[in-house]
Each structure stands twice: as C-alpha cells, then as structure tokens.
From TrEMBL:
It comes from Hymenobacter nivis. This is Thioredoxin domain-containing protein. Gene3D superfamilies: Glutaredoxin (3.40.30.10). InterPro entries: Thioredoxin-like_sf.
Length: 210
C-alpha cells in the first residue's frame, strides 16, 4: 500500500518520473519535428492470437479488453504451479476491477486440452472471465510463447529474440496497446507486490490520461 500511495503523491504533485517502462524495442525511427530530426523508439506490440480458454470459448488479445493483463507461461513443473498459486492474490486484489485480467498459457495441454484447462481452472480457483487458463495448437503456442512473450527475457535487445527465453515463473504485464510494461519473477513475494503496485500505476495512468 505504501508504494502505491507514494507513487500517487509524486504523480500528482511532482514530475511524472514513475510511469512504467515499455519493453521490447523493435526499432528506432527518425522523425522531423520543428525542422529538427528526433529519434523515436518503436516498441513491439503483441500480435493478435487465438487460443482456447478454460471456459470453452475462444480467447484473443482483443477479447481481453482495453485494460491490462498478466501473462504466465504454464508448464508441467512445480515452479509454474507455485506461481499460479501466487496469482490467486492478484486475482483477489483486482476481482472487482474489469480492466484487469490474468492469462495462464498452458504449453503442454495433453491429449484432452479442454478437460485439462477445466481441471486447472478448478484446481486454482479461477474466477470466470477474470483469470483464464488457455492453450492452442502447436503453431499458435509457438507464436505466443516464443515470438511474442518469450522475447521479454531480453528486454534491452533491439533485434527480435526467437525461442522460449522466459525463465520459469516469469510474469508479464501487458497494457491495453498490447505492449509489455513489466517483467516479474513470480516466485518472489516482493516481485508479486511490485506487480500489484504497477498494475495500480497503470490503471491510475489510464484514469488520468487525456
């Protein structure tokens, strides 16, 4: 609570130096403003995807709404399970906030994906429409897990990184423009606290943007 209050005070009464960073620069463009050339970084946007959600419906980047979403790559390991348990407090914190969603992307759904997703949703006590387990065919998972989310493991590299580079337990905060705004180690309580704070920071920016 203290970090959030400190941010709100500084945001209102001081210079806004506490806006969240944007990760995954794609390229640097040069634009002419007032007769002078300026360099402008263009950041990567998560490309549209289609996955199957635990509620049996199609999950797309568009269906996540115009808020923020927390993404987890969920594998058959204890670290993924541990981080999923940590996500329960994120779900509880924002259960009444329609602009926040959680998505756990299941990388190995097994021979019965729908049953697997439903079982995971029940096991972790997800709230329908708030936190979704999702999966898809191999090509769709490769797109999301490697070409898109996996790149966040090396946020300062300008060239695209292809490969499952996210360490186990990593959580990503994605904004309404499908840009990565935070990278967290979901196995550490302090990182979960930082995630909670930075979700509030992003929501505050949305509420006070013109």
């Amino acid at each position: 609570m203290v970090p959030v209050l400190a941010f709100l005070f500084l945001y209102r009464f001081g210079a806004n130096r506490y806006a969240l960073p944007t990760y995954l620069p794609d390229r640097v463009d040069s634009t002419q403003v007032g007769g002078k050339w300026q360099r402008d970084t263009v950041f990567h946007q998560i490309q549209p995807f289609q996955l199957l959600a635990s509620n049996g419906r199609e999950l797309t980047s568009q269906s996540l709404g115009r808020g923020v979403w927390v993404a987890q790559l969920f594998g058959p390991d204890e670290t993924s399970a541990r981080v999923a348990r940590e996500l329960l407090q994120v779900q509880e914190k924002f259960r009444q906030e329609p602009l926040v969603h959680l998505v756990s992307i299941v990388l190995e759904p097994g021979p019965a994906p729908v049953a697997t997703l439903a079982q995971l949703a029940e096991q972790y006590g997800t709230i329908a429409g708030k936190w979704m387990f999702a999966t898809g065919p191999a090509d769709a998972l490769k797109q999301v897990a490697q070409q898109e989310l996996g790149r966040a493991a090396q946020p300062h590299q300008l060239l695209p990184v292809v490969g499952p580079n996210l360490p186990p337990g990593t959580l990503l905060l994605i904004d309404r423009d499908c840009r990565v705004r935070g990278v967290y180690d979901g196995t550490k309580p302090r990182e979960i606290d930082r995630l909670l704070t930075e979700i509030n920071v992003q929501l505050y920016e949305y509420a006070h943007s013109h």
